[in-house]
Amino acid sequence: MMTQPQILIIEDEAALRRFLVPTLEAQGYRVEVAEGGHEGLRQARTHNPDLVLLDLGLPDLDGLEVLRQLRGWSRKPILIISARHQEGEKVAALDLGADDYLTKPFGAAELLARIRVALRHAARPAQDTPLLVLGALRLDLERRDVSVDGTPVHLTPLEYRLLEALARRAGQVVTHAQLLNEVWGPAGAGQTHYLRIYMGTLRRKIEVDPTRPRYLITEPSIGYRLNGEGSGNRPGPEME
Amino acid sequence: MNAAKADPTGGPILVGLGSDARSLRLVHAGFRMASERGCPWRVVHVEVPGWNTPEESDQARVWLQEASELGAEALWVRAPSVVSGLLAQARGRTPSLIILGLARARGPWDRLERSRIHALLGRHLDVPLLAVPLDGDAPREPRGDVFRDLVGVGAALAVILVLAGIFGAALAVEIGFPALALVFGLAIWFIHQRWGLATALAGVAGSLALYAGVFPGPARGLAVGDWPHLAAFAANQGGVLLLVHLLERLRREYRAGRIAQAESVLLMLLGRSLARCSTIEEVAEVLTQRIQGLFHAEAWMRLPAEGGGWRSYPEGRPAPPCPAPEQMLPAFAAAPAGEDPLAPLHLAPCAYVPLGGPAGPAGLLQLRPAGGGSLPQHRWGLLQAFATQGSLALERIRWVEAAQRARVENETERARSALLGAVSHDLRTPLAAIQGAATSLLLPEGALPEASRRDLLAMIRDESVRLARLLGNLLDLTRLESGVLRVQKAWQPLDEVVGSALGRAEREGPLPVDVVLPADLPPVPLDGGLMEQVLLNLLANARRHAGGSPVRLEAWAAGDSVELAVEDRGPGIPEAYHARVFEKFFRMPDRQGDGGVGLGLAICDAILKAHEGRIWVEDRAGGGARFRLSLPTGGPPPEPPLETGP
């Protein structure tokens, strides 16, 4: 069991902990629980968990502050749990280095999918995975080669850089600011419309039906996500 | 009106403004042309030292204020002449058009007036001029005040009389005395026209002295030194004097008429500004500002405060101490016998005028004349009229506020009971199902077959999703309406929002949608998350009512907005409910049990309003509902970025 990843839950609401702990333990994860921000930071230092589930709305310490301190010394994945009234803080948390987010209420399948993606991403850095296959989309980062259904797709340098930035974090949300910085550099700051225009052309080249994107998923007001499952069913609230 | 070509360079429109009431036409002409062309405009009053009376300056100030309220940049310029003042302005920033008033020429001086325009044209100013005719039925009165510039006028007088004397003498050699008298008479008439009665009297005296002293007749073969001749000359000049006197009286009456005309325009302007005010503070601002300009007095309104005591407005400016208003108010009810009923109550250093209410005086207008003097008597009537206008505006605001309060209370009450109704039903139903299912599952082992257990679990999941959606909607609507939720607009193509909304809608189950999106749809500034919510709500409605028939989603560019329509083949919405479906908690009477709570469209409406757009519903041709929304683009989109680098 020592090889199973350890997950630290920093969450003050007992009901949510009651749901999270057995759900994660049933999947074989080792689970540690902290009820507040200070305790969470202490536990994180003691256990050095493989992944942190962090609630933004903690009573004793601002979730963003916990995140900032964690990121001060740890590169391990951090998933944010936010309530609806903290939507604005989601972008701030992601830009501070959180890996992904879940909005309350969420289902178990969605939670587990996000945890899997984050752990996989942490275990295999992007440089080691030059080949990405998502459904019909095939992306060879080493040879800078993109094809859909075996047909090569010609991308402009900017479009390629955009796709590459998303592919390196496939399955995870990448904020507007992060994409702009990675693709355009500091000059791109705040120029979200750049991004939208290039995302539009990229979709027209890659997606079968650009009005119903399967790969390049929009996270409204936050950023984009390259669909890591490649199935057309993006991870999201369980409605079905 | 002279034709003026539109200048494509788009410089400001420059309006040269005089002081009389008719000048407002120029302001309005400038306003109209500036709005037509969408360019800035400036209104300039050129003060020529020594030419404007204080009242005229005050009026010009009010016209300038009116112009700046209409959006003009108002400038007050001092210059040696109107032409040089206007030229200085025109050189500073080349205007696209200059608008000037053109009085109908009645005499030589009006022709001089006209020549201003020629003078401007002659300065190689490459700007079109527009001369707006002022209704020039009344003669232009001579401007200026003789005592203002005594030396200059005296010198001019001497020159005119000497010239008239020399000219008259030269003529008199040929044709004798009548010509000399006539020339002097003309000089007197000219002097009167230009400088008024006092100067004309001086002119008469001067001409007599010249006649008697400078032309000693016998030496020139003329008997002008003789007494009868001198008497005839004096009688002649006396006649001129009488004429001058009558003209002077006419002039005074005309001036009074003009002041009355200006005052009625001032009252009209005040009334109009007050009509736009919606708070007591705004009324106080407008009223005191106008009073300051016209009466040269700082002013405050003293009104009863809520919960007793008095409060002075505008609140930003501390008012000087004032005796208790409740003690002063009775004094206004009856003016002391023999005193002007228009007189303000004067208690140094301030003067007080009552502000009326429904039952007698209800407040005070407090004025502190600049320099500690008193208010000019000829303006008392106007001041009282101002106070009355202010009182009426205050009264109107009180009633509007009362009506507003009643309406808000009514609406809050209605919303509260609707919310209670919705909460009691829509929250209890899923809660009851969840509680029931959970307690069943907790029954002793083996009481439920495995299939039923899974069924109940699925129900708990579905009902909690429904509950979460309802609460989310309620929260969103509250935050939208209270302004907590800020709309974060960014330029983006609509297809991205449509795509992500379709993706989310399809996850709730298959939904056939025909999407018609032109490739060249212009980007729109919008909040992606909120607009996705709008589309999601419309698609959810279509799903609920269309019964599996395909939904059509179409967008197109329409001028400076982008429009979108979501159409279904459901039962449609009767015209009587076209507006009401966007109200909170409104549900069509025959569709109560369809799972909706009557919040979706209210949220759409709130989101569209926050985007300065609009949403409405129509009947779809061939049956069904057609929800349409219009989003303003608000100008050209930012330039698309250039592809650079490798």
Automatic annotation (TrEMBL), chain A:
Residues 129-228 form the OmpR/PhoB-type domain. The keyword Transport does not apply. The modification 4-aspartylphosphate is found at D55. One of its GO terms (molecular function) is identical protein binding. InterPro entries: CheY-like_superfamily (IPR011006), OmpR/PhoB-type_DNA-bd (IPR001867), Sig_transdc_resp-reg_receiver (IPR001789), WalR-like (IPR039420), WH-like_DNA-bd_sf (IPR036388). GO terms for cellular component: cytosol; protein-DNA complex. This is DNA-binding response regulator. It comes from Mesoterricola sediminis. The lineage of its organism: Bacteria, Pseudomonadati, Acidobacteriota, Holophagae, Holophagales.
